[in-house]
Every structure is written in structure tokens, then in C-alpha cells.
Fold this protein.
Amino acid sequence: MSKLMNIVGACAPVLLAWSVALTTCLTPAVAAESKVARPSQTVFYGTGRATSPDEQSYALVRGDGSSLIISGNGENVPVDELKRAVSGDFIWFRDGERTFIIVDQSVLARSDKVWKAYEAFEALLSQAREKTRAQVRVIEQMESGSKDARSASASTVARLDAERKLATQFKAEKTALEQSRTEAYRQAHISTRALIDEAVKEGKMLPECAYVKACIDR
């Protein structure tokens, strides 16, 4: 974990410049050292750039069910219906009152790439949270075993102090990862909206009704 934290620290400036560059920096380290499996389904909510989030909602859905990323109002995204109608990965998005689907592989590949940095930080943050919780449990056990500080040996007091300092360090690492993850999300969201806008200009989308016949009712 400490090695990964060093990598994160080195990559942080790159993240502020461009999320894709950070992805290149982080992905090898995560692949080599992170043993956290991608969750069966992960939902992240963001904010659309329009006045009403519903007008710019989008969803990135992986056909294997590994993850689901939603920006805007997730309640208005017919995910289950879409997954039954569309095979494989796809992007669903709303533009005003109309809804569309993108299945173009080049767009999907670029979209997947811009979210890699976020997912890398999410995996590291999951590790950091568990590490912090484990450290808190160690301290609680030590404190319960020596409730009377006056009778505790000098070595026990010193060890407890060291464990508390370690817990503080772990919490600081977790906070830093949370901040980096937030920035990675912001960058990925901006990049995704740009990809969608580009796909619209190039005609790389179809109306949702081309896949889901009931969409006319929404």
C-alpha cells in the first residue's frame, strides 16, 4: 500500500493536467499490486452540465455487469430495460427531451480509458478504508486491554502511542485518496461529456427507440 501511495503522490500533478495521462501512470501499478476485484456493479452519480441534470444525464454500462456509471438523475435511466435490449457495452444519454444510445466501439474504448484513473483510485481507496478500519480495531483492542493507564507498562503505552500515530497516518492517506478520486471523477465526467458531444456531431448514435420500443412513452 505504501508503494502505491508513493505512486499516487507522483501521479497527482499529472491528474490535475489530464486524466488520461494519469491513467497511463497508475494502471500498471494497480494491475501489479492491487488485489481488489472490480465490484459486480458500481454506481456513481455526478451532475449534468445543464441547468436541469435530467437534460444531460448519461449512463455508461458494461455488458458484463462489472460496472455502471451514471451522471445526472439515475432514477430516470431505464438501465434494466436497456441492458435487455442492447448487447454488450453502450452509452445511454439524454439531450433535452430526447434519449440516445451509442454502441460505436471507438467511442466506447475512449470512454473506458478516461474512467480508468477514477477506477484505479476507487480500488486504492477501498484498500485504504479497510486498512484504516483494521488499525482502529487494533487500537480499540489495546485500549480495552489496558483501561487503567496508570497500571499499563511503559512499553504498552509507547506501543499504543505508536499505533495511534499510524492510524492518523492511514486516515491522512485515505483523505488524500478521496480528494484525488474526486478530481479523477471530475476529469472523467468532463471527458465523457466531450466524447458524447463529439459522437453526436459525427452521427455515432441512434435514438433509444431504435432499441427500446417503449421509449416513446418516456
Observations:
- The first strand starts at residue 58 and ends at 61.
- DSSP finds six helices and five strands in the chain.
- The CA atoms of residues 87 and 147 lie 60 Å apart.
